[in-house]
Write a structure and sequence with these properties.
Number of helices: 11
Strand content: 15-25%
Mean pLDDT: 82
Largest sheet: 5 strands, mixed
Low-confidence stretches: none
Number of strands: 14
């Protein structure tokens, strides 16, 4: 922090000092590109250089030590911290989603999809006077995509690189990559060509990743990647919703009703729900996750920064695959009413007996 000091002569000088602060966090901003977390809050421990109650912003980068304290640690928060501290939890899946003149180079972790670079080059049409420069423009586009792959993808960690596009763009790119790899001696890329998987998608935009990850032929190649579990669960849910809708549930009321009767086999919940400003609301969702696990089910927490998390968010952020079909609310209500009628009859018999003890 920049600290100003005043000397005996009245002159003021400033210098940067490294100090330890304890702040009560009020706002969090995550920059996925750096990556860095910015925390804003009030200083709650008296300090020689920072007044008590003064606002301060902290920037937490990789390898910077800090201590995190909370009034209470629930099981979900503890599990997230453990996963974040796991050195093996790295982006082991990468993807290049492309169409003519546009490409997104992405890293996919179990919790988020990071766009490392967007490549855009103007490609002339096939007809007209500008068509003469078309091949040169396409080669320029391919060169920029290759540079982005070399710069942002660490093949010592990445197990699979998806090359997805509509039409034959992916095939043209892979052919160009092989030719230029030999000319430019790109050994770091050529020796990892078996990790490249060409696949089809309907568009060259980032949202097409959901379509790519749902492809059964691609899913077979992704079994060893950490993003596969969430994607498989969501794909299974939509298939079940189409074929056996009575074995699915989504929305808070429907999912909680399924949990109460022990019907949930796989729970899918958005991490956005655990960021609710009201602690009581957050506690409800934590208890839901714990109840599913105690009942022998699986609970998967989806990040809204991942394509699968964005899809789940459209279903209220809460969905479940059930072990058995759940009875409709009308059937339950009818059963309760019938039971109530039986109980009511018993009560009247008891009253009649009390009023007429001789009978």
């Amino acid at each position: 922090r920049k600290v100003a000091t005043e000397s005996l002569t009245g002159s003021v000088s400033s210098e940067k000092l490294r100090i330890n602060l304890t702040i009560k966090v009020e706002d969090v901003d995550f920059d996925a590109q750096v990556p860095m977390i910015r925390l804003k809050g009030k200083n709650i421990v008296e300090n020689e250089f920072v007044k008590l109650g003064a606002y301060h912003t902290l920037e937490l980068e990789n390898n910077r030590k800090f201590t995190l304290a909370k009034p209470g640690w629930d099981s979900v928060a503890s599990e997230l911290v453990e996963k974040a501290c796991d050195p093996t939890a790295k982006a082991d899946l990468a993807a290049v989603v492309m169409q003519e003149g546009l490409a997104y180079v992405c890293l996919i972790t179990a919790s988020m999809t990071l766009t490392r670079q967007r490549v855009e080059v103007s490609i002339p049409r096939k007809q007209g006077a500008a068509a003469m420069g078309r091949e040169k423009a396409i080669n320029k586009f391919y060169d920029q995509v290759i540079r982005a792959i070399v710069q942002h993808i660490d093949f010592s960690v990445v197990k699979c690189l998806l090359i997805a596009s509509p039409g034959f763009v992916k095939d043209g790119f892979l052919q160009y990559l092989k030719e230029q790899g030999q000319k430019q001696d790109l050994k770091g890329v050529l020796e990892h060509l078996p990790k490249f998987v060409a696949c089809h998608c309907s568009a060259g935009h980032k949202h097409a990743l959901k379509e790519v990850l749902s492809d059964p032929s691609v899913a077979a190649r992704l079994e060893n990647t950490k993003a596969a579990a969430e994607n498989k669960a969501l794909t299974d849910f939509f298939q079940m919703l189409n074929n056996q809708p009575e074995r699915t549930a989504y929305g808070e009321a429907h999912v909680r009703r399924a949990c109460n009767i022990g019907a949930i086999d796989t729970l899918m919940i958005s991490d956005n729900l655990f960021r609710a400003p009201d602690p009581a609301v957050r506690k409800k969702y934590v208890e839901l996750v714990e109840a599913v696990k105690d009942g022998g089910g699986t609970a998967l927490i989806f990040s809204t920064m991942h394509v699968t998390g964005e899809q789940l968010q459209k279903l209220s952020g809460l969905a479940a695959i059930l072990r058995f079909p759940m009875p409709e609310e009308e059937e339950e209500a009818a059963a309760e009413e019938e039971e109530g009628d039986d109980d009511s009859g018993d009560d009247w018999d008891l009253i009649a007996e009390l009023l007429n003890p001789s009978k």
